[in-house]
Amino acid sequence: MLVRSVSVCPTCHGRGQIIDEPCPECQSSGEIQREEVLTVNVPIGVEEGMALRIPGHGMPSEEKGGVPGDLFVIVHTKPDPRFERAGADLWREEIVTVPEAVLGTLRTVPTLYGNAEVTIPPGTQPDSVLRLAGKGLPEFGGRSRGDLYLRLRIRIPEHLSARERELYQQLRALAGAGSRSHAPHRGV
Q: 59 and 97: one domain?
């Protein structure tokens, strides 16, 4: 029985040549590992998870004297507790009281570019959305900006003072009287 075995030469490591005086840095591997500090220009409007390609700074080529590959940097953005991002648009939840929703109010809200005055109109309903045009992030590859959207949540008081309870009871009585006066008349 004849058995044939193939293995890599321990001296030349399969290269077919032996180096009498190996390089002290690479030990004849032809590769030197070193750390490099790079400055990466992150384009305006880049989004979470995008990959930025840096040519020539990747792994070495498998062919002798070949060009190194590319390095890819994955972008991770730090969240801002004031906003939620949706592409170039930003969302913010704004809580208003019942009187503010009923009567309307002027509210100062933060944006990425400083504070902005927003008019909350009378009769605002729960989960209404107000749009502040151009107050979002710059769009990737474009020249425009996204918008800032305010989702209005109405805070219903859980604990009322005696005076507040009295006023809400008066409002309920007024609302009940108004609905009875507008009810269709039914003859007997």
A: no
Bridge partners, 45 (sequence order): none
Non-local (6+) Cβ contacts of 79 within 8 A are 85
Q: What are the residue ranges of helices labelled H in 18-161?
A: 98-103
Q: What's the one-letter identity of residue 155?
A: R
- Contacts of 118-122 with C-beta under 8 Å, sequence gap 24+, read 118/150, 120/96, 120/152
CB 55 within 8 A of CB 70: yes
**What's the DSSP call for residue 130?**
E
Q: What does 157-171 look like in DSSP terms, one character per residue?
A: PSS--HHHHHHHHHH
Which phi-psi region, left, alpha or beta, contains residue 100 (left: φ > 0; alpha: ψ -120 to 50)?
Answer: alpha
Structural domain boundaries enclosing 122: 84-158
Model confidence over 111-167: pLDDT tens digits?
A: 999 999 999 999 999 999 999 999 999 998 878 999 999 999 999 999 999 999 999
Q: How far apart are CA 167 and CA 173, in angstroms?
A: 10
Q: How many domains, in total, are found in the chain?
A: 2
Prediction pTM value: 0.69
Condensed to tens digits (0 to 9), the pLDDT of residues 42-59 reads: 888 888 899 999 998 888
